Structure prediction request, 149 residues.
Amino acid sequence: MTEATSVQLGLRTQLIRFVLTGGLSAIVDYGLLVLLMAVGLDYIPAKVLSFIAGTTTAYLINRRWTFVSDGSRRKFAAVMGLYAVTFVVQVGIFAGLYPWLVSVGLDTPILPAGLVTAMHWAQFLGFVVAQGTATAVNFIVQRAVIFKS
Prediction:
């Protein structure tokens, strides 16, 4: 990988692209989380695998589209370091929040029986809080440090 001459897009453009990419990545992450838990995988391994899939999606799109970078080795290593930190943050928040949400009675289906009954409020709320926190950290560090031109 080589260092490319990067084009710094405006904050608004980057933020819009980051949110769109994050939305797609969240669909990958949450969809896989629900699927893996529905087939019987425990919530922590399911979250680990879904995080990896969602994060890989986000990196590949954000590197080229949001931050217009060719992905030098230095930037790749920096993003992987950041993702390691956000992995601990996101999985840690989900691992702590999910069982608590279940304990307070939020392990109820989101949709009526017969539809996608594998989706529960505890999963959804735990995912949103964990994902939201990790997303904010990711955008700030990637824009201000990793892909700063």
Observations:
- The chain has a mean pLDDT of 85.
- The chain has four helices and no strands.
